[in-house]
Amino acid sequence: MDKKNILTYEGLKKLEDELEYLKVVRRKEVSQKIKEAREQGDLSENAEYDAAKDEQRDIEARIEEVEKILKNAEVVVEDEVDIDKISIGCKVKILDCEYDEELVYKIVGSTEANSLKGKISNESPVGKQLLGKKVGDEVVVETEMGELRYKVLEIQRAE
Predict the structure, then answer these.
(1) Which of 24, 15, 28, 138 is nearest to 69 (CA)?
(2) What DSSP line would sit under 123-144, residue for residue?
(3) How far apart are CA 150 and CA 129, in angstroms?
(4) Interval 41-49 mean pLDDT
């Protein structure tokens, strides 16, 4: 049995849009490149043909990957998220106790995680420790560089 892919509605929409783009636009573009490369003659020494075939293989692999994610998707309805405790789909403000710095994260499923955009996975060390916690709770996260301590300051529904 495949693992459930937990997604927010935003993440689901993004994947559906990507799948549509890959199937409708990118497939057509690549098949046109392959057609043009074939028209150049000898395929054994045709770099454009090889590159287009590689690109086609990558696109088909990504289509398959996205379809598999969507097939096993479980969507979190963010408007219904319980904000008494931290769960997937909520936004959390925490205090890094060592650096006295406030951090804001959105807790998402692993397929949507992007730390540069403030989205951390429920499966990440920090995300895992935060799940189920309430405002005022402290968590300790074990990392290779030692312990990190955080205090939960605020829990909100994500926009």
Answers:
(1) 15
(2) TSHHHHHHTT--TT-EEEEEET
(3) 10
(4) 80
